[in-house]
User: Fold these one by one.
Assistant:
Number 1:
Amino acid sequence: MAYRYLGNSGLKISEITYGNWLTHGSQVENDMAEKCVRAALDAGITTFDTADVYANGAAETVLGQALAGERREGLEIFTKVYFPVGERGPNDTGLSRKHISEGIDASLRRLGTDYVDLYQAHRYDHETPLEETIQAFADVVRSGKALYIGVSEWTAEQLREGQRLAREAGFSIISNQPQYSALWRVIEEKVVPTSEELGISQIVWSPIAQGVLTGKYKPGQAPPAGSRATDDKGGDQMIKRYLDDSVLTDVAKLEPIAADLGITMAQLAVAWVLANDNVAAALVGASRPEQISENVKASEVTLDADVLTKIDEALSGSIIRDASLTKSPEKRLV
């Protein structure tokens, strides 16, 4: 396992990071979730990412239980705040001082830890003054409840203003967590250049495009039984944008590229996002331990310029680049 610095900070994280969105507390039973976490630890993963909204808090609880007994100093635990949680009252959402203050305490209880290494704004809150949000995060850092602050799916403009206010408040935003894959490249035009300027790294989610880049979905065929495309708890909605026959036909063109390299399609997809110097880590989830064991091998893969060009050519008709697709809800959900 290789490790990278997160943003302009001294924090190193495993470049393959374990994420438990759509798995712990929902798709995967607790005992299997713990086996997946154990497989991640055995593979050298030290960084674990979750959020309070995942399974309405259950994902944090399961992760905390799975990591119990591990040396805390040897782990980097990340969580997030923004989306509605708990009883879903009028203040159980957003990035207000109240919700951030209560949210970090609730997350720490569920995770069973005194602090998180990274506390992230899960989206941008258009209904709370950014100054209030940044000051609340500054208080969380000063209290020792979080060591660093990050964000998720913020636009270039939001990152710039947020970083300005953060530095005035005595800390820095060191990370952004956007969707990014060989198919979904909306951060490349604006977010990545701005982040490089501001000392912010990307921790990217869905590097395998919800599983589509594994090649298991075939044009003209029904999705495999038990796959994310058949999950009615949310997975099917997230993946449906990619289940177009033209996209799946382009993805199939990656098979000989992966075969020539002696790696799987999933490893190719993860190695592709890690080829971007602004990416500190690729988030991978798992419903089975062997998925982790296979995906971490991407940490050993370096893709040369010729291979990157072949990937671009194979997917040219299906790549999404529209920078305007980086956005947060205009209004809170409750």
Note: The domain at 3-325 is CATH 3.20.20.100 (TIM Barrel).
Number 2:
Amino acid sequence: MIKIMTAAERHTTHDDGIHSEFSFSFGDYTDPHNEHFGSLLAHNEYVLKPMEGFDRRFHHDLVIVHLVLEGKLTYEDDKGKFMELTPGTIHVVNTGSGVYHAENNASSSEDVRYLEMWFLPAEPGLEASHHQGDFTQAQRLNQMLPIIGSGDGERSLPQSLDVVMYSSILETGKELTYSLSEDRRMHVYVISGQVEISSEDGVFDISSGDAARIQRRHELTFQGNSSEGNSEVVIIDMP
């Protein structure tokens, strides 16, 4: 089954220099029919104006992913972590038993645009931990690059979460294929451009800000379909 959620269906807020787009119930936005998708609890896109951001707040037993699309995002927390995240960097924090954290735009002139995703951890109450990885456009061009994933290795998530996240930049007409297992789900999000998804369920065109929620076994083909350049997409395989 493939369900398309368009950019227009997201919940939009503007508050003190922060523009937010929520794909699921979040904060003051409540929709009992749209609370999560598998282990993915939140998929938010933010734009922070210069010198704006979020004050420290407390979270526990969440794995939070930051993926910067434009600008430079500053992350800091009560565990002594201070990071400046730029496009081509992914940051993962397993909040475990609890973390006070904040994200801000320290620039006086440029906006920051980024994705923040929340996942259920494999185990509650673990010690807080961080993971940071870097990748290039060349590594993602017409390829599904696993920017975080389960198991061991350079790109593994802290305290192994059963999720693999891919990033891809597709030239128009180029295709990628993927076999989704019967017991897995997939969340596909278009950052820019347009992507055509083909499977036994049909053909679906999704554009910037749109998402596809896919369940059960599928043989999938993703094709870049933009008339104005390349298309960038994030693909998450999860339980």
Note: Residues 137-140 form the longest helix (4 residues).
Number 3:
Amino acid sequence: MNTLQKTLSTIIILLLFVPAFAQHPPKHPKHVNAPAVVKHKWEKLGSKTVNMKADTDHLLVTAYEGAFTKVKFHVAKAPIHVKSITIIFANGETKHIAINKDFPKGTNSKVFDLPGNKRVIQKIRFEYQTIDNGNGKAIVTAFGKH
């Protein structure tokens, strides 16, 4: 085979494989917009096992979780009567929400919108009254939405 035939054969073989490579996107894109992926997901801010003797508990939230536009909470293990919650923001401002409602175990609160665009939460204060039904202490879990 002469040099011209070898070169043409190599080019033809390469041209046969190029369309196959062009059809498959790369496995790892260079730019991933991670916040957009979790933008609409509820993120756990923390849980607190309520004290049967106290009537107020604080759930600390770190700035690592970021800024949120909405919050809600879930009650597990035992029922609880929630009087109110107060959300304390990183800048010292607060939002007090009167609730005054019984939450059986396994239930969620409604979704509460936070004032402003996005807020960094420092802590959430729960004012409650325990409901003794023999199931032990209630566990309150707070969730935030970015």
Note: Residues 24-38 have pLDDT under 50 and may be disordered.
Number 4:
Amino acid sequence: MRTRIIQGDITTRAVDAIVNAANSGLLGGAGVDGAIHRAAGPELLAACRELRARDLPHGLAAGAAVATPGFRLPARWVIHTVGPNRHAGQTNRALLVSCFSESLRLADSLGARSLAFPAVGGGAYGWAGRQVAEAALDAVNGFAASHPGSELELVEFVLFSPEMEAAFNAVWAQPR
């Protein structure tokens, strides 16, 4: 499995699935979440409302992941995951790692060969770029070790800011 770190707009990526840094309500929001909802069109909001009514009446828990179609996006699927909110006292790093791990697992189960992540937990949820990058790297390494037969070939980290891109590049450059 190859990884790539780029600065850009995740809504334009021609990959099988993109990950949405969602809130627990799954009904859109600011940042990446809002951008994905706008680009996917109103069908995404309708699908999320149906998920909430049918399967997630209390919302999606931090660290969990669920998929919807991508609708008007180039990506076939949107995988929604909720990062722990440091500003709300959710400082359990394992939940942050789980966002990446569960998204990788779900992408694999959907048959995705390519997946793009934003900096889940960064930005509004208060995790520093280095912390997000370390959690992402741990999840990717753990997934690769535990799923040797996965057809997932490419994992991209599509980061909005140069600072976040630099944090990911610095973590990935360290020997482990």
Note: The two ends are 17 Å apart (CA to CA).
